[in-house]
């Protein structure tokens, strides 16, 4: 005889969202945030008309007029003949990329599950926002790297100078030069005729450098705090660091980056297909951009949704959420990148 048959089965607690709180932990999306902040900066490279036209441009090509930089010849001879001079104009074509994602919910599966409908929905939205932020942060860093300047006119950069030649279009900052680099960086930017306040987008290793030297003030043998005034810092785990380095960064004048976003006409208008299907705009958490939402509710065979055969869900309600948006990352125009310094300067902090 035995009480084996009546032993208690597995005991489960309620789902309290605590034990798994680090499963979908968020990251820092410094590049994405900087592009977005620069878009609304008073010195932004885009204004209201560009933003409005961008939002209306789906299905069309968006172009932004520009005038090339240049010089007027200054002579030392007076004459009755006034020379001619004409500006050269151009059109910058904006390249958008489409980002889509989606998930579904089967309400019937939660009636006999320890995970409730609302908890599952909230976690899916968290994953969605986190994924959008990560992908867009990566895309914005890709844009920074593609548009970084290969030309620097500074007396501190180049063969035979303090920092030596660029490698991969990046300033090579040795360990010995790291403590005073941000003081030198202002000079490097000034010698390319950029001045004012700057944004720095760096790997996490840059945070270590900034924290260390920005806190070496007047009470230290050498005061290095003074050099950090012109810079605002943002960080991302998606900034690539070279094997020979422990940190990498991009620096550019504030207001020299921008993010353009566009949605489909159905999403903007909030069109309704029927009682169970509609379009709308959804503010994507963590990525902080408006994306198109397409919602459907229908009867479907959901018998395999729980990872096994659930016959009672063979004809049950299924809700589906689809999300889509077009995004373009743009940087300040440079009519001749082969000979003229651009706004984005990259630096690698070397291990030795």
Distance between the termini: 75 Å
State the major sheet: 6 strands, antiparallel
SSE string, helix = H, strand = E? HHEEEHEHEHEEEHEEEEE
C-alpha-based Rg, rounded: 27 Å
- The average pLDDT value, as a whole number, equals 93
Percent range of helical residues = 10-25%
Total discrete domains: 2
Oligomer description: single chain
Low-confidence stretches: 218-223
With helices defined by DSSP (H or I, 4 residues minimum), what is the helix count? 6
Shape: flat
Q: Based on DSSP secondary structure assignment, what is the total number of beta strands?
A: 13
SS strand fraction: 25-35%
- Secondary structure category: alpha+beta
Layout of secondary structure:
Layout: H1 30-39, H2 48-55, E1 63-67, E2 89-93, E3 97-105, H3 117-147, E4 170-173, H4 181-190, E5 198-202, H5 204-214, E6 231-235, E7 245-253, E8 257-262, H6 265-269, E9 272-274, E10 277-284, E11 289-300, E12 316-331, E13 345-350
Parallel strand pairs: 4-13, 5-6
Antiparallel strand pairs: 1-2, 3-12, 5-7, 7-13, 8-12, 9-10, 10-11, 11-12
Helix pairs in contact: 1-3
Could you explain the architecture of this structure?
The protein has 2 domains: 27-69 and 88-97 and 116-262 and 330-352, no CATH class; 263-329, no CATH class. It contains 6 helices and 13 strands. The protein has helices at 30-39, 48-55, 117-147, 181-190, 204-214, 265-269; strands at 63-67, 89-93, 97-105, 170-173, 198-202, 231-235, 245-253, 257-262, 272-274, 277-284, 289-300, 316-331, 345-350. The strands form 3 sheets. Strands 3, 8, 9, 10, 11 and 12 form a 6-stranded antiparallel sheet that branches. It is flat and about 110 Å long. It starts with 29 loop residues before the first helix and ends with a strand.
